[in-house]
Each structure stands twice: as C-alpha cells, then as structure tokens.
Amino acid sequence: MSENDLAEETKREIKAVASAPIVFGIALVVIIAAVWGFMHWSYRSVLAGKDTHIASLERRLADYRSALGGASPDEARRRIEALQNEVRTLQVQLKPRSLTPSQRQSLTDRSRRPVGVATRPLTIVVEQKCNDCAALGDAFAEAFRAGDNWSVTIQTAGQLEQRPRTGLGIRIPEPTRPSADAEVLRQALRLAGIAFTMMEGPPGSGVELVIAERAP
C-alpha cells in the first residue's frame, strides 16, 4: 500500500468514527474493561499465591517456636548440640570395650618378669554400675596373669570418688613418681595402644588398675 493509499484509508476510518462516535466509544470502553479485568485477575492470582506461601511460612515458624518452647536460634542450636552429645555418649557407652588378641599378647609380653623377680601384685578395681567394666576387667586379669607375671585381685567399687577421664586409670600414691611395678604397667598399656589416665591413690596403697564408665 502506497503512502497516498494509507492516507486515504486513514481519512475513511476517521470519517467512520466521526459518523458513529457512540459505537466507537462503547467498543473502546469494552476493550479497556477487558484488559483491566485480565490484569486484575492475573495479579489477584499472584497475590493470592504469595499470601498462601506467607501463611505456610508463618505456620512453620509457629510450629518451630512451639516445638522449641519459644527458644531463640542460639538456644535452639545449643539444645540440638546437647542432644547430639547425649546421643554420642549413649553410643559410646552401649558399645562394649574389649581387648584385641594382639593387645592381650602385648600386655603379657610387656609384663614378663625377669628371672628371680617375684610375681607383681595388681588390684583391678571395677566400677559396679558400668555395662562393660566387669568383662573388660576379666580380660585384663587374664592377660596379666599369663606367665605368672602378676598376682591379680579384682574388686568391685560401687561409687568412685575419682574417675579416670578415659575410663581406665592407673592409681598409685605418687603418679609423678611411679614405682617399678607401676612403671611396668604403664609401659605395657602404652605399648599396647590402650589409653589411660594416671590417678593419685591413698598413701601406702599398691598398684591399681581402675576401670570405670567412659566419659563422653
């Protein structure tokens, strides 16, 4: 279409609108109303979706606060960490301790007494309220009695005033100045790869191997 034709067509449309202004006005109003209605419906759907999402988040937040008793995020983190520590402690305590065959042999070999040396006295003190202390005490006694290296006595303790941090301790009067027998026991445990704690016992007491419930 040429420019002249386009100009003539535009003039004809203007004359048509001028000859029927009411019809044109109604059509224009209908178009505007339709566009506004569509936009209003679209935005209302979007806003309704956002309101639903916000309400869901508010419910989740309320449930979270209710479950934690209104605790702050820091308090909630501390509570969760405390629960995790309790779980780890329970897992440690429920898993029984034992000596491997190589540890038993190492304890026996490292405790061998020289010819002419008397059998060493050793008291194994076992905590009573402990799920694996008695069995572990028997295992140690068997390893130390082998070869007649130690004369072992097992005692049960209902309440320990001093508990070894590792669950196993050597208790002697002067931990910083162990006797010859205590040093043999210390080296035997160390070379067998068994963790223990040095503990101070009453004056005049002998060498004691204390077996207690493990700390977390």
Question: Explain this structure to me?
Answer:
With 216 residues, the protein is an alpha/beta fold. The chain has three domains: 1-67; 71-97; 101-211, no CATH class. Helices cover 56% and strands 13% of the residues. The protein contains six helices and five strands. It has helices spanning 3-19, 21-67, 73-94, 101-110, 133-145, 180-191, and strands at residues 120-127, 150-157, 168-172, 197-200, 208-211. Strands 2-1-5-3-4 form a five-stranded mixed sheet, covered by helices on one side. Helix 6 (180-191) links the parallel strand 3 and strand 4. Helix 4 (101-110) crosses helix 5 (133-145) and helix 4 runs antiparallel to helix 6 (180-191). The protein is elongated.
Mind telling me the C-alpha Rg? 43 Å
So how many helices?
6
Tell me the strand order in the biggest sheet. Answer: 2-1-5-3-4
Give the H and E element order.
HHHHEHEEHEE
State the low-pLDDT regions, or none. Answer: none
Give the total of beta strands: 5
Please give the share of residues in helix: 55-70%
Counting helices, strands and paired strands, the structural category is: alpha/beta
Mass-distribution shape: elongated
Instruction: Report the β-strand fraction as a percent range.
Output: 5-15%
Taking the alpha carbons of the first and last residues, their distance comes to 91 Å
Average pLDDT reading: 79
Q: Profile the largest sheet.
A: 5 strands, mixed
Q: How many domain regions?
A: 3
